[in-house]
Specification:
By secondary structure, the protein is an alpha/beta fold. It has helices at 3-28, 53-56, 63-71, 90-99, 116-121, 132-144, 146-152, and strands at residues 35-39, 45-50, 81-84, 103-106, 125-128. The protein is globular and about 40 Å long.
């Protein structure tokens, strides 16, 4: 790993910590522990959020959607980075493609393998961290809430 790759990984882990805070907040509210954050090309935090499907009774309020909405309208999403604690589902992968988000940092894809490979095939930069804290949080949630988890992933 060269210095540029090492710097990217350090930045990815720092940014992931914001998404993890959001995931913890969602869990504390009785929801699904998935968090996300959207960063500008200059590294500015544009928006952050967590899955609120349970809390709001809104099936479209995924973590990535919440972060995207909280970022507000942007003239362009080129150069932005979506950070998410879990591999994005097809719905959230579509959001990334639709708006031209350039990169996705994925906390983990062990408990759920979403659309990040498809995004990579379509030119989106993917940084997969397989973060142990993200894996553990989701594993615990899935074990303790299998029906809610299956609802969330559409099974």
């Amino acid at each position: 790993m060269d210095q540029a790759e090492a710097d990217l990984m350090d930045q990815a882990r720092t940014w992931l910590s914001v998404a993890v805070e959001e995931a913890r907040a969602g869990l504390a509210e009785g929801g699904i522990p998935i968090g996300a954050a959207l960063y500008g090309a200059d590294g500015t935090l544009l928006g952050r959020g967590h899955n609120r499907r349970v809390q709001d009774g809104d099936p479209s309020m995924h973590a990535e959607t919440a972060a995207f909405r909280n970022a507000g309208r942007q003239r362009s999403y080129r150069g932005t980075t979506m950070v998410t604690t879990l591999s994005p589902c097809w719905y959230c992968s579509g959001l990334v493609r639709q708006f031209g988000i350039s990169r996705v940092i994925v906390g983990e894809a062990v408990t759920f393998r979403g659309g990040h490979d498809w995004l990579a095939e379509h030119g989106v930069g993917i940084v997969l961290l397989d973060d142990p804290e993200c894996v553990g949080m989701m594993r615990d949630f899935i074990i303790n809430n299998p029906a809610l988890w299956n609802e969330d992933i559409g099974e």
